[in-house]
């Protein structure tokens, strides 16, 4: 009988979350954190042996990448190249040497792109995170998906697929095989304007270890248009469409975890001194394979022909100070997080009944914000209002949002454990079976306006020209109402 494939379902995700959320100051090093989490998995009586093996393998993959950047981690000497490596499942130096030996077998035809790819490959931290030049004939079943402000998006099948694992016996990288991917055609990238190359560089170099961003596999070139095309891992949905299709089945816990993961990812982007500038629900992507959320689209500047002093973005998520002529900062991204928090907790599109025009932009600069319904949890609403404060200095940093969302998630898990313990005692007392509602009161749905016709009105980023001669402000309670 074939062994059933293990997937990261709600049960395993809960165990996974608990191993992370229970870490404390006693686990200071990467090795201590790794061993503690592995120990929790091994000692969890609710897991089968196959489930434990699956989680332990996933933990190893994560910590192998993290260890490579941690000098304090004990190293092992490779039997093949004699270098002292830090990963457990492979030797990162052997992988890099293998890639280097293959340099002569490919070229993009563009010296700058070749140089960038080679530099990325010489910093590869795992088999699964290798940037490549990919010949366009490797793709089949190419289908148009959507249009963006400066790119056209397709789905396709990559015939060979990305690198997947290191074969230490044969000293070679092995490929995944046929795999669905996203192709992002960078419009006008065949021009001499090097602006488009900014996104390629950031996409390939910004997130080598932490998986904060949508994962890029490499770059190709469409011979019919000569435009460069970024190749991304396939993502099942963006946040806006995910909420449209799944909101009524989302528990409060799952909504909190969406914001928790977005804040964690944004913190890593900010930690590397990069501002996103166009963070909205269409740029937050979900992978069913990993059950995680990722931030996408680092175009940053929008179309290359964008007028000087104009704004490129999805209007409801743009910070009010930007409308008033101030520059983007990391705190501008935090305003976007505040709007995303409202969108996730309510399921509605921000200002879904309004046109994206000068009037709406001016109202936002003057303090207009989405309605805070009375059944939105107080701690969450308080954090959300701090994020969209008119004064950027009053907005929290991304790591503060991450920490506060972690506390909210911990409190929900603790409440769930208490309720499970309570029901378990009742079952033991009466010696009978009992069924409880998984979506109980502490994780209830909080939507307040289910029949609103504009609830899922979707708009994309575009270029605006605003420069209001006012100081951004917060509306009073009376004005907001």
From TrEMBL:
Gene3D superfamilies on file: Transferase(Phosphotransferase) domain 1 (1.10.510.10)
PROSITE patterns, alphabetized:
PROTEIN_KINASE_DOM
Tell me yes or no: is Metal-binding among this UniProt entry's keywords.
Answer: yes
Reaction(s) catalysed by this chain, per the record, are: L-seryl-[protein] + ATP = O-phospho-L-seryl-[protein] + ADP + H(+); L-threonyl-[protein] + ATP = O-phospho-L-threonyl-[protein] + ADP + H(+)
Q: Does the keyword Nucleotide-binding apply?
A: yes
Q: What is its EC number?
A: 2.7.11.1
Q: GO MF terms on file?
A: ATP binding; metal ion binding; protein serine/threonine kinase activity
State the Pfam families in the record.
PK_Tyr_Ser-Thr
| Residues binding Mg(2+) | 283, 297
Task: Write the protein's name.
Answer: non-specific serine/threonine protein kinase
**What is the protein's species of origin?**
Diversispora epigaea
